Amino acid sequence: MANQLLLMCAGNSSHYVGKNWAANFVKHYLELQTHLSRKYDYQWAKYEDYKFISDWLQFVQAVKAKYSIVNNNIYNFDKIGFVMGIISSTIVVTGAETRDKAKLAQPGNREWATVIQGICAGGWTVPPFIILAGKYHLASWYTETSLPKDWVIALSDNSWTTNELAVE
pLDDT at position 100, please? Predict the structure, then answer.
């Protein structure tokens, strides 16, 4: 596209943008900057469509009106499982003479944790419910941490939720 714009402006096809044109373009405009991109799931991205969200909210409003549902009776709960100790890509500064890519050693420990969170449309939240793998609670989880007192730490064999934990 940049070459097409240049052709339109210059009027001949002998001019082409250079390999650094994008970086130079960003440097030229102070309001622009670069960032590292992050992975983003396509299924999540398509649900950020304005029309989809607008239609959904209209549907929710209609259901609330039809059944006289108040905000204090609307909740959203979600759970996420994640691996603790996984290193992600990052920018690393090295000496100019370094030719190899920088490497970060990944610890062998790959413990999972699950967190269940909830929010009420009335404006309050349910404290997080954290599930770790294990059989016994460690005192240090409660004495040597800055976790709020109302957060719950629970245990299961594999850090996944169970029917018993769901009742808690």
Answer: 60
